Every structure is written in C-alpha cells, then in structure tokens.
Amino acid sequence: MAPLSEIILGTSENKAAKRLRRLLRAKKARKIAPRLYTTNLTDPPAKVVQDNLYEILGGLFPKAVLSHRTALEGKPTAKWEVFLTSAYARTVLLPGLTVRLLKGPPAGAADKPFMGALFIASQPRAFLENIQRTRSGEAASKSIPRKKLEERLDRILRLRGEKALNTLRDDARRAAKELGLLKEFKALDQIIGAMLKTRSASNLKSSIAKARAAGEAFDPERLRLFEALFSALRKTPLPEIPEPHARPEALRVLAFFEAYFSNYIEGTRFEVDEAREIIFEGKIPSARPKDAHDVLGTYRIVSNLSELRKLPRDAEKLWTLLSVRHEAILGSRPETQPGEFKAEVNRAGDTVFVAPELVRGTLAKGFEFYKVLDAPSAKAAFMMFLISEVHPFNDGNGRIARVMMNAEFVAAGLRRIIIPTVFRDDYLGALRALSRRGQPTAYLRMIDRIQRFSASIDFSDFASARRALESSNAFKEPGEALLIIPESGGGE
Questions:
Q1: Structure confidence at residue 347 (pLDDT)
Q2: How far is Cα 437 from Cα 395, in angstroms, rounded to an integer?
Q3: Which region holds residue 438: left if phi is over 0, alpha if psi is between -120 and 50, else beta?
Q4: Segment 375-430, tens digit of pLDDT
Q5: Which of 3, 127, 142, 318 has its CA 20 to 30 A from that of 242?
Q6: Domain limits, the chain
Q7: Using alpha carbons only, what angle is made at residue 435 by residues 429 and 437, rounded to the nearest 5 degrees?
Q8: What angle do CA 339, 337, 197 make, to 5 degrees?
Q9: How many Cβ atoms from other residues are within 10 Å of residue 173's Cβ?
Q10: Alpha carbons 113 and 119: distance in angstroms, whole number
Q11: Sheet with 112-114, edge to edge strand ranges
C-alpha cells in the first residue's frame, strides 16, 4: 500500500471522500482549513501548511500562475504571503499563509509548469508584473520596491553583460504583447535604456542604477563587505606603533625586506642574497630579468618616503596613485598593461573579483568609507582590503594593496607591516574570510598579530634583522613552522 500523503484535499469524488471520512473517524487525519486536511497529527497547522506550500497551492488553485513578487523572488514574503494570478481575485487565509489571488492572464507560452499543478511566471513576465504599482489600500504589495527591481536588473547587467539585459528586454516586449502589459513594458524599457545610457536616467530610483547610468557603476556586494569592515574598524581599535628608526640605513633595510617578502608570497622568489644583489648592487640575473625588475620596482616604491607620504584626497587621486605605483612595480612587464586598470575579469580560486567596468565606481564607493576613518592603522587596514577585493589590475594586485596599506603607516610616522613567507596562508585566509563570508574578525586579528611581529624586528642593521627574521621562522614556507614573535623589538 502506498504511504499516506501528509496533505489531503477535500473532494466530492465518492471514493476519495469515503477514504477521508475513514481517516477522520480513525483519528489518522485532521482538518486544518476549509478543504484542507493532514495526516500530520503533531505539528502546528501553520508548519504543516508552510512545509507543504506548493502541494497545497496546486491542489487548491490548479493552473494558477505564481506571479508578481513571488515569481521574481522565488519564495513567499517575510510575512508568508504568496501572489498567484488566476481567473478571479480573492484573498485566502490559511494557517501560516496568506494567498493573494490576482485576476489576470493565464499562463503564457514562456511560463513554466511548476510543482505539478501550478505555473510560474517567466522572468520577463515577472519583471513586467513587478512594474505594476499596488493600489492604495491594498493589504500587501504585490510588487517589489522599484529600487529593488532596478538592483536586480543591474545584477543581470553586472554578472551577464549587456547582451543578457537586451535579451530580457526583447523577451519582455513579446510577453507584453501576449499578456496585455504594454504600459508595463514601456516603463521597463525606460529603466533598461537608462541603465544602458540610451535613455534619460531622471526616473531611476536606486543609487546603483543611477551610478550605472552616470558611468560610475559599482559592485553592491563589495560595498556590503566594505561596510562590514568599516563597522568593525570603528568598534575595534588597532595598535598605533611608532616607527623607531630614523636613520636612512635602517629604513633601507626595512624597505628591502618589505619588497622581498611582498614579491616572494606572490611567487616572485629569490634567495635573500640574490635579492640583495638585485636591489643594492643592480645585478640583474640574465635568466630572470622581469622577476628581478618586479623586486627592484617594489623596493623603489617602498623605500621612497616622499612617495609613500602621498595619500589620496579623493577617488581620482586614489586612481592616480594606484596607476603610478603599479606602473613603477610592473613597468618591465608590458603584457600586464602596467598602470592600466584591467579590461578582463580576474579571479583567485572560487573568488571572482570586481568586473572591469565597475572598478572605478567600486573604488570610489570604498573611498567614501576610507575617508571618514580617523586612525591611520584603521585607514591602512581598510585600504589594503579595498584594493585586494577590487583587484583593479591584471597582475600585481597583492603587491600594490600592501604598498597602499604601508603608505598610510609611513605618512603617520608608524611602523609599517611586512607579511613574511611563513604567514602567507594566515594572511590570505583572513582576506578570504572577509571576502567570501563577510567576517572581519579574522582579518583584524591577522592585522593585529602581524603589526606586533613587524614592530618586534630591529631593522637598524641588515645582518641582525636577517637573524631576527630567521629566528622568527619568517623565511619558512607555510606549514613548515609557525611565526614566532620575539618578546621585545629593537630600536636604533
């Protein structure tokens, strides 16, 4: 015998009606709403309805179309309301669920069968329906807010490109003719045209769509990450450790190891003595001239205090500083377009960074958070994540992110940070935790630890600094050892 379904619909069909009566007499079923019964005798009626949502809707309203915001969002509202288009208008109250039946056209050619007896509106139809405004006095809005609709269109454009948005518009035009939604198509066409810069943007509502129309499009998902980090930095002060060195020789040694480690963790690897010959003796190995120039270019930036004391006053200055410093680092690699923002999407593992057309706008939005942070260490931590997360260049993004971070420390007279080889996985893992899960705690903990490590090393002499780094396991590969922070750092 087939197992009993949890949901039973009342019916006039003789055999099924008799079976239901037997179950009710045997107390193996109970009524939870008109025409609605269940064999679940323990859970509250609201839970039974919500757990069997689409089976119930299909049974009570066969051939109805999941439409309007329900189709676009793919789920009930937060208050457990669903919107269906059918041959009549009505509101049906069930335990834990409000069904809003809207009178309208039946399923069209592009609408899909859904969960047996229902249909679900196609994406073009759903966008058209969500253009419709709710009449004053209606109990609930059948349409998502206009700002949210524009943000959904921007997401299509951002992730799938102009072709996908134009295809949606073409499909919506056909659906509008079939369904009698020509007025709604006109409004949708206006929004899409504005976002593609072919129509006036005066009626756009969302900041994302307005920025897109103005040529300043940004990545809203990254903006949420920046906001999370900004909030955490406001709540969690980071150490402010003064730079103890003043003599040029000490600062040259510090800059050497900063450049050495920054390149090493990115895969440009030399032995310390080889790097020392490249930087201090100008000895460029014939087998690896470009790698050598990467190290030398990084050193020239991080040893130039007057350059590092330049901080961005606005978004345009940020773009300029990034471009100039990036070109200085990767000037020997013309294939990477040094100094030019990327033209193609880049990624690291599962992380896809900001799309090329959103780089300037996302940097500008991130700068709005950066500029109101007060503490130099907070600005430094924010700046490094901003550049790392946007990944504005084809190559060299990690190096330029660390350069921009340390410029904040140098300008404030604070000890800059170096990321030693052994700490690479901790550093990247903290960045990933913030990038992928929006969790800044590990990132701030990482910054705090590496600040204390960097402050513990005395860079007044090359040989002694090297010994201190070796005793801290700084040159070890991740997994071979743990970073050791000496109990006390040195001065001059």
A1: 86
A2: 24
A3: left
A4: 999 999 999 999 999 999 999 999 999 999 999 999 999 999 999 999 999 999 99
A5: 318
A6: 7-121, 146-213, 220-471
A7: 90
A8: 80
A9: 15
A10: 4
A11: 90-94, 97-103, 81-86, 65-66, 118-120, 112-114
Question: In this structure, are residues 176 and 132 in contact, taking their beta carbons and an 8 Å threshold?
Answer: no
Residue indicated by tokens 């003064």 = 242
Please give the C-alpha separations between residue 129 and each of 58, 78, 155, 156, 188, in angstroms, as whole numbers: 21, 20, 19, 18, 10
What is the token pair recorded at 138? 């209606």
| Superfamily for the 220-471 domain | Fido-like domain (1.10.3290.10)
| Mean pLDDT of all residues belonging to the chain | 93
The model's pLDDT over 247-297, given as tens digits with 9 standing for 90+, comes to 899 999 999 999 999 999 999 999 999 999 999 998 999 899 999 999 999
User: What tokens appear for 150 in the block?
Assistant: 């524009």
| Spatial separation of the C-alpha atoms in residues 26 and 29, rounded to whole Å | 8
Query: What mean pLDDT do residues 45-51 have?
Result: 96
| CB neighbours of residue 54 within 10 Å | 15
The predicted model gives 330-354 an average pLDDT of 90
Q: Which tokens in the block code for residue 389?
A: 């997360």
Q: What angle do CA 290, 296, 302 make, to 5 degrees?
A: 140
Contact predicate 163/171, CB 8 Å: no
